[in-house]
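INTERNAL AUDIT FORM
Audit reference: QA-55
Scope: verify that the stored structure record matches its stored sequence.
Auditor: D.O.
Record contents follow.
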Amino acid sequence: MVGDTGFEPVTSSVRRKRSSTELVTHNSRYYSCLISLFQANEINFVHIKHILDSRVMRMVDMSFLYGKSMDFWTYWGFEPWSHNLMRGVYRKVTFVKDSLLGEVGKYYAYDYIVWSHQGRHDAEYILSTWKPIPEVMTQRFLFIEEISSFPKKVKMFFFGLKGFIEVYSYVPGTKWNPKIKDLAPLVNKAREIAISDI
């Protein structure tokens, strides 16, 4: 699989052993591309560190939750999502505050369910680089794992006035944090659909 960076991750199952000359050429092109992106202000030092670290990190791949469950996720308002080597689905949820005089306020929340990722490494990347979005109160990231690699993490933007980021790890079929009681059952249902004919 090739990520958004255009570089082949080290998790490829089949790989021909390269000669030393090929490796030097490959790495030179790789780093030249990174330098070009940095000079064009397309990426910063944090992005470069994440990209370089990702070459030696273990990938978690729970993408079987999407294959046969595509219609299921669409029904619940989710769309495909990717960022760097992360893959999953996301949705935008609208919350409206009403009064006797009608609508008095509206805000939004984003939910991301991520099933291809690098565990704690990507969770920390999200927390350190993700930005607030106008009128969006909460951005929740649910990392699906075989073995949980980190506890719940929360980051406030401007003391919470510009919203929050919440990052969770969840193993399908296990007890979930009350804050993801609307997302975890969807993951379990998708898992049930995915393994129904196996």
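Auditor finding: record pair retrieved intact. Residues 1-26 have pLDDT under 50 and may be disordered.
Action required: none
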